[in-house]
């Protein structure tokens, strides 16, 4: 199911980006300083904030303003890498959007802090693999193509974390969005994992050539990147367009706290300017502050995350809130639409849960519709009830009680068998059992049936024709014979 967000205009039409596709294919943004990369990232983050959790690695502190409008928690890195890992773990548990600001650290400290935070996101427990957009500005600082002035240890840690994000993060729900000033300075194994590209104004020949190659353009077209105005990008990828398109990025609702790149008239001349700047300060007088006050230290952020609740949008009122019955009806409808997808039968519950959460946000279901364990239970029951209501209500209630005592991944498989037993229907086929388990392998589904039989939940047998029958002792019911299966090697005809 598509979830389109608006990046701006392309040829007078809205420039739409499929957020669902982006979560699976990642994004690379490239452009020289002043090309509008940060503005593009801000537009992307603002437009997608209602639909997906976000984490921003911000080396300059430009994105802290997202906290005021969209409720992001600002985490100020202070050199305690262990604390950052704990923060990242809680971020995934509580599904909080965060901005990690690194402007208070030197280059070596920034790389270590980014590696610790990304490592915490990556190493989260499987039940917390919710979809998350991980945006890294100035990615060449954290995944450099060559060694620089930082220590080898910091570079190894940071490069490894960035590689994990772009190469292995998708299965953990992490979708990398990286921006760089120069492709030549970015490690190739990190850049190569992105399938979507937005290329802005570029002047160096080597960077123009690489950008043209990534977009499938001819080398003679590479010089067009020199002529792009500020805020315009050439985009390509499955989440953007199948052919290169020029996108003019739209306006943003928040602004960077950095100085605006404009002219400001000088103040009127003062009489004794020399004395103002050269006269030493009196003893005991503190020098002027070098920077704005920092946000809360990392140690305090842990308690903030535990107590965090996403703020309601400004336009939402009490009248807009859904009553429980309407909310439940929408959740049931969304769950049914997820299962109606052609590929749902071969997807794992975690993958289906990502799709479910995105669809719920599109339907304006506020907060967490269902936790992952609740979703797995509802998914199992919905799959088993796909043919309509079960005739024996008491037996079905008992079957659900038994399923609740089983591991989450086996509950759906058991309920499909239990329903067939209650109704006296034929034993489910291998393909039906595989779909209930969330796989395409009939052999794997049969192994799970053997596991259930070892636990005494079911008993399998065959009739004289070799047709399979499954009994559920706690329900006092069994399925009708399924399709007969010939013995190995087939039947041999006797000859006299």
Can you tell me about this structure?
The protein has 496 residues and is of the alpha/beta class. It folds into three domains: 4-256 and 294-306, P-loop containing nucleotide triphosphate hydrolases (Rossmann fold); 323-383; 392-478, Winged helix-like DNA-binding domain superfamily/Winged helix DNA-binding domain (Arc Repressor Mutant, subunit A, Orthogonal Bundle), CATH 1.10.10.10. The chain has helices at residues 19-25, 37-48, 66-70, 81-94, 107-122, 152-167, 188-191, 205-214, 273-278, 298-306, 324-340, 349-362, 372-384, 393-404, 408-423, 430-437, 442-454; strands at 4-10, 13-18, 27-30, 53-58, 73-76, 98-101, 132-136, 174-180, 196-199, 232-237, 241-249, 459-462, 468-472, 477-478. It has an eleven-stranded mixed beta sheet with strand order 2-1-11-10-9-3-8-7-4-6-5. Strands 12-13-14 form a three-stranded antiparallel beta sheet, with helices on one face. Strand 13 and strand 14 (477-478) form a beta hairpin. Helix 13 (372-384) runs parallel beside helix 15 and helix 15 runs antiparallel to helix 16 (430-437). It is elongated. Residues 13-67 form the Helicase HerA central domain. Pfam families: DUF87. Residues 475-496 are annotated as: Disordered.
Topology diagram in text:
Layout: E1 4-10, E2 13-18, H1 19-25, E3 27-30, H2 37-48, E4 53-58, H3 66-70, E5 73-76, H4 81-94, E6 98-101, H5 107-122, E7 132-136, H6 152-167, E8 174-180, H7 188-191, E9 196-199, H8 205-214, E10 232-237, E11 241-249, H9 273-278, H10 298-306, H11 324-340, H12 349-362, H13 372-384, H14 393-404, H15 408-423, H16 430-437, H17 442-454, E12 459-462, E13 468-472, E14 477-478
Parallel strand pairs: 3-8, 3-9, 4-6, 4-7, 5-6, 7-8
Antiparallel strand pairs: 1-2, 1-11, 9-10, 10-11, 12-13, 13-14
Helix pairs in contact: 4-5, 4-10, 5-6, 11-12, 13-15, 14-15, 15-16, 16-17
């Amino acid at each position: 199911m598509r979830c389109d967000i608006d990046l701006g205009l392309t040829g007078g039409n809205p420039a739409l980006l499929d957020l669902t596709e982006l979560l699976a294919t990642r994004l690379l943004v490239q452009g020289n300083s002043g090309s509008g990369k940060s503005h593009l990232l801000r537009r992307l983050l603002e437009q997608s904030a209602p639909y997906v959790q976000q984490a921003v690695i911000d080396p300059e502190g430009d994105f802290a303003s997202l906290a005021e409008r969209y409720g992001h928690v600002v985490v100020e890195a202070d050199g305690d890498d262990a604390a950052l890992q704990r923060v990242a773990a809680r971020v995934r548990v509580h599904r909080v959007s965060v901005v990690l600001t690194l402007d208070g650290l030197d280059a070596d400290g920034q790389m270590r802090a980014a590696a610790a935070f990304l490592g915490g996101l990556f190493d989260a427990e499987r039940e917390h693999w919710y979809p998350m957009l991980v945006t890294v500005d100035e990615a060449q600082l954290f995944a450099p193509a060559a060694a620089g002035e930082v220590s080898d240890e910091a570079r190894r840690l940071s490069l490894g974390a960035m590689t994990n994000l772009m190469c292995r993060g998708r299965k953990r729900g992490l979708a990398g969005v990286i921006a760089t000033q120069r492709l030549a300075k970015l490690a190739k194994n990190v850049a190569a994992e992105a399938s979507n590209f937005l290329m802005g104004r570029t002047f160096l020949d080597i960077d123009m050539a690489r950008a043209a190659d990534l977009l499938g353009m001819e080398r003679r077209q590479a010089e067009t990147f020199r002529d792009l105005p500020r805020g315009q990008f050439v985009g390509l990828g499955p989440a953007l367009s199948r052919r290169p398109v020029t996108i003019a990025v739209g306006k943003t609702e928040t602004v960077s706290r950095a100085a605006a790149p404009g002219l400001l008239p000088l103040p009127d001349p003062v009489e004794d300017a020399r004395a103002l700047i050269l006269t030493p300060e009196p003893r005991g007088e503190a020098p002027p502050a070098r920077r704005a006050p920092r946000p809360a230290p990392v140690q305090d952020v842990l308690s903030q995350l535990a107590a965090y609740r996403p703020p309601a949008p400004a336009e939402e009122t009490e009248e807009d809130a859904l009553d429980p019955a309407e909310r439940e009806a929408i959740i049931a409808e969304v769950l049914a639409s997820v299962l109606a997808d052609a590929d749902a039968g071969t997807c794992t519950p975690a993958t289906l849960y990502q799709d479910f959460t995105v669809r719920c946000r599109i339907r304006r279901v506020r907060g967490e519709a269902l936790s992952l364990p609740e979703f797995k239970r509802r998914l199992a029951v919905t799959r088993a009830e796909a043919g309509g209501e079960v005739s024996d209500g008491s037996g079905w209630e008992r079957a659900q009680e038994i399923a609740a005592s089983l591991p989450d991944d086996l509950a759906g498989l058991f309920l499909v068998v239990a329903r067939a037993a209650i109704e006296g229907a034929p034993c489910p086929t291998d393909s039906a059992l595989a779909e209930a388990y969330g796989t395409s392998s009939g052999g794997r589904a049969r192994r799970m049936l053997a596991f259930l039989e070892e636990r005494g939940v079911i008993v399998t047998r065959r009739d004289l024709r070799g047709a399979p029958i499954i009994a559920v002792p706690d329900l006092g019911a069994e399925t009708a014979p399924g399709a007969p299966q010939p013995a190995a090697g087939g039947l041999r005809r006797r000859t006299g």
